């Protein structure tokens, strides 16, 4: 059984800070072929679509399309602030390996 991804409070708070919902936008997390490890994450503000899984918190939305959903089962979508910069990150238990940039993975 596939569990939907989880979104941390910190990620929802960051979306609220940038006013995503105020602009009618959601954070889209998608998985596409490519990258240095076979698959890569695509993370961007986007308009929710009819067939998206919608995860809501703090008045904000994170959306995942039906094709990407199996790749993100039980993953955690978080927001990280480090010396190298601030970004949304995916902690994915399905990934057998990932590259140093954190945006590419294999299964």
What does this structure look like?
The chain is mainly beta and 107 residues long. It has a single domain (6-93), classed as HesB-like domain (Hypothetical Protein Aq_1857, Chain: A, Sandwich). It is 8% helix and 44% strand. It is built from one helix and nine strands, in the order βαββββββββ. It has one helix at residues 9-17, and strands spanning 6-7, 26-33, 39-46, 53-57, 60-64, 76-82, 85-91, 97-98, 104-106. The strands form two sheets. A six-stranded mixed β-sheet has the order 4-5-2-3-9-8, covered by helices on one side. A three-stranded mixed β-sheet has the order 1-6-7. Strand 8 and strand 9 (104-106) form a beta hairpin. It starts with 5 loop residues before the first strand and ends with a strand. The mean pLDDT is 90.
DSSP summary, beta strand count: 9
Beta-strand content bin:
35-45%
Q: Strand count, sense and closure of the main sheet?
A: 6 strands, mixed
Number of domains as seen in the coordinates: 1
CATH superfamily: HesB-like domain
Question: How many distinct helices?
Answer: 1
> Residue share in helices?
under 10%
CATH topology: Hypothetical Protein Aq_1857, Chain: A
CATH class: Mainly Beta
Q: What is the terminal separation in angstroms?
A: 17 Å
Mean pLDDT: 90
CATH architecture: Sandwich
């Amino acid at each position: 059984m596939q569990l939907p991804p989880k979104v941390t409070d910190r990620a929802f708070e960051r979306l609220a800070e940038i006013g995503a919902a105020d602009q009618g936008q959601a954070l889209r997390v998608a998985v596409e072929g490519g990258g240095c490890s076979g698959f890569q994450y695509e993370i961007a503000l986007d308009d929710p679509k009819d067939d998206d899984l919608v995860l809501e918190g703090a008045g904000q939305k994170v959306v995942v399309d039906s094709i990407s959903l199996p790749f993100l089962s039980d993953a955690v979508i978080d927001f990280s602030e480090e010396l190298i910069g601030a970004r949304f990150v995916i902690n994915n238990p399905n990934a057998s390996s990932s590259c140093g940039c954190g945006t590419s993975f294999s299964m």
